[in-house]
């Protein structure tokens, strides 16, 4: 990625209707609406594991070609997860950019189904890039994940600066996700705006 891309964990929350989504928007249009405001999405494991072939086609039709999907893997990467993620990768093609593994297990591969892995862990790290915040370390493929988002602009600015300064030489941007089901979309918008103001 050439720039910092801020995104959310999931997109289907009742609390976003009226606050982010229009009150009368059909549920099947929500991803289309989300993708007009943000260019990256971290899909919860519980959601992508349930996708059918028909849903994959509908979801892909909801976004533009430059939209990027990342997929959460919670804990171990079991055979059913591998089979389903392969199915998703085949359907989505270039729109799939990475896997975010949230795990304290010792054995995490650097890629799953051909996708680069970012490990989020309290005690373990993958080789290469690392960035730590609030007791957690993101490592492996450059991708930021935080579980709480400060409401203070100065703290948001410091957060993004810390992340961007951690990126390897030659890497100009990466995805940055707020992993929270209670996410205030106004705060996420503020974070995105601050990133743009900083020139990221």
Write the layout of secondary structure elements.
Elements: E1 5-9, H1 30-37, E2 40-43, H2 45-48, H3 53-61, E3 68-74, H4 79-92, E4 96-102, E5 111-112, E6 115-121, E7 129-133, E8 136-140, E9 144-146, H5 153-166, E10 175-178, H6 185-197
Parallel strand pairs: 1-2, 1-10, 2-3, 3-4, 4-6, 9-10
Antiparallel strand pairs: 5-6, 6-8, 7-8
Walk me through this protein's architecture.
- The chain is α/β, with parallel strands linked by helices and 200 residues long.
- It has one domain (5-197): Protein of unknown function UPF0759 (TIM Barrel), CATH 3.20.20.
- It contains six helices and ten strands.
- Strands 1, 2, 3, 4, 5, 6, 7, 8, 9 and 10 form a ten-stranded mixed beta sheet that branches.
- Helix 3 crosses helix 4 and helix 5 (153-166) packs across helix 6.
- The protein starts with a strand and ends with a helix.
- The relative contact order is 0.17.
| Shape summary | globular
Q: CATH class, please?
A: Alpha Beta
Order of helices and strands: EHEHHEHEEEEEEHEH
Please summarize the sheet with the most strands.
10 strands, mixed
Termini Cα gap: 11 Å
Alpha-beta classification: alpha/beta
Any idea of the CATH topology? TIM Barrel
Please report the number of helical segments: 6
Rg measurement, Å: 16 Å
What is the number of beta strands? Answer: 10
Helical amount among residues, as a percent range? 25-40%
CATH architecture classification name = Alpha-Beta Barrel
Number of domains: 1
Protein name: DUF72 domain-containing protein
InterPro entries: UPF0759_sf
């Amino acid at each position: 990625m050439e720039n910092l891309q801020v995104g959310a964990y999931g997109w289907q929350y009742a609390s976003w209707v009226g606050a982010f989504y229009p009150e009368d928007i059909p549920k099947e249009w929500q991803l289309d609406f989300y993708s007009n405001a943000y260019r990256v999405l971290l899909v919860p494991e519980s959601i992508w594991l349930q996708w059918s072939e028909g849903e994959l086609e509908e979801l892909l039709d909801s976004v533009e070609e430059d939209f990027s999907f990342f997929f959460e893997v919670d804990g171990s990467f079991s055979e059913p997860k591998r089979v389903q993620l392969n199915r998703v990768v085949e359907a989505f093609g270039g729109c799939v950019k990475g896997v975010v593994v949230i795990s304290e297990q010792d054995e995490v591969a650097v890629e799953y189904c051909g996708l680069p892995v970012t490990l989020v862990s309290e005690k373990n790290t993958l080789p290469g890039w690392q960035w730590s915040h609030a007791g957690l370390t993101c490592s492996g493929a450059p991708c930021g994940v935080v579980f709480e988002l400060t409401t203070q602009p100065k703290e948001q600015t410091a957060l993004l600066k810390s992340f961007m300064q951690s990126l390897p030489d030659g890497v100009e941007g990466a995805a940055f996700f707020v992993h929270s089901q209670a996410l205030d979309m106004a705060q996420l918008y503020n974070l995105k705006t601050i990133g743009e103001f900083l020139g990221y």
